[in-house]
Design a protein that fits this description.
By secondary structure, this protein is of the alpha/beta class. The chain contains 13 helices and five strands.
């Protein structure tokens, strides 16, 4: 007979992985089934956040870090051993098992990688919040920063993001989005320390979630919108009700670049259906204002158009200097 005897059966190894971004104890049903059916459960990290919950559920866990050889020996006789992986994923153990399997000299147990909890979309944002919290506490420079001190970086990062979009560089776009996101998280972390009006990144996220839901009644409510124009109508109507502004110009930041400011004012006037003659006067400013209003009416972003022209001018300057274009 060629059947393997129970004593010689190689058994089974289950490597159980969990996400630190999911609350401990929230494991998948297959994970709980594997844990309850295991002959032995091992974990090299005695401080693993899952251990208290496993023990509360009646699962005995041995705090040990076996070698690959020891783990295979523990599976002898057809036994099932579950290894609760540490945050690093047990690379030394898995490398050792791979070497033994490749040698062909060892009867290997069945190997299974079983994810016990999964990251939801956006889970890495939790890592960013944790990293920022540590940097704020331990970094001599970051710990001293204020909202006002960081304001210039927010402007710089926004412009670099726009440049990445206009260049069409996907790698650069991803990086610049991260830099802008850092500014949001950094400011929110500083805001937690305000003695009179503290708020956190959760308050920031909660506020924008509420705003988005309220301003999209065609998605989350009973209203309908089938065109971008109707969506914009909903947005402006709900925004006006929220802000209770006296003028269509309220809320427009006057410190933004001049062409963008002129185009924004023109957009508000046009959307509101107002007939407002352009002011007249001497000087280039009034000419630029008229050009910006015409550009907005034609659906052209005057700032973006000027940047394109300025880059062309830059390339011409470099060519005149005998320097290769960027």
């Amino acid at each position: 007979m060629n059947a393997t005897s129970p004593e010689a059966a190689p058994g089974r190894i289950v490597l159980l992985t969990t996400s630190h971004r999911v609350a401990p104890g929230l494991l998948s049903w297959p994970a709980w089934q594997a844990l309850h059916a295991a002959d032995r459960v091992l974990c090299a990290d005695g401080a693993h956040p899952q251990l208290p919950y496993l023990r509360e559920a009646g699962t005995a866990v041995d705090e040990t870090a076996p070698t690959a050889e020891q783990l295979i020996a523990a599976c002898a006789g057809g036994r099932t051993v579950v290894v609760v992986a540490t945050g690093e994923g047990e690379p030394a153990l898995t490398d050792g098992l791979a070497r033994l399997a490749g040698s062909g000299r060892v009867s290997m147990p069945d190997l299974e990688l079983l994810p016990a909890s999964y990251d939801l979309p956006g889970a890495r944002l939790l890592d960013l919040v944790q990293v920022m919290d540590r940097i704020r506490v331990e970094c001599p420079w970051s710990s001293q920063q204020t909202h006002k001190g960081l304001a210039k970086y927010g402007i710089e990062e926004a412009y670099e993001l726009v440049e990445a979009i206009e260049d069409g560089d996907r790698d650069e776009l991803r990086e610049e989005l991260g830099d802008v996101l850092l500014q949001v998280v950094f400011h929110a972390r500083i805001a937690e320390e305000d003695p009179e009006f503290p708020f956190s990144i959760d308050d920031v996220a909660g506020g924008i979630v509420t705003k988005l839901i309220h301003r999209h009644p065609h998605v989350f409510g009973d209203e309908t919108a089938t065109t971008p124009e109707e969506v914009k109508e909903h947005w402006l109507r709900t925004k006006a009700a929220e802000k209770q502004r006296e003028s269509v110009t309220d809320g427009i930041p006057l410190g933004q670049p001049g062409l963008a400011l002129a185009a924004k004012l023109a957009s508000r006037v046009r959307t509101a259906g107002l007939e407002v003659p352009l002011p007249t006067g001497d000087g280039l400013g009034y000419e630029l204002l008229a050009m910006a209003v015409r550009a907005e009416a034609a659906g052209v972003d005057p700032e973006a158009a000027l940047r394109v022209a300025a880059r062309t001018y830059r390339d011409a300057v470099r060519a005149a200097e005998g320097v290769s274009p960027q």
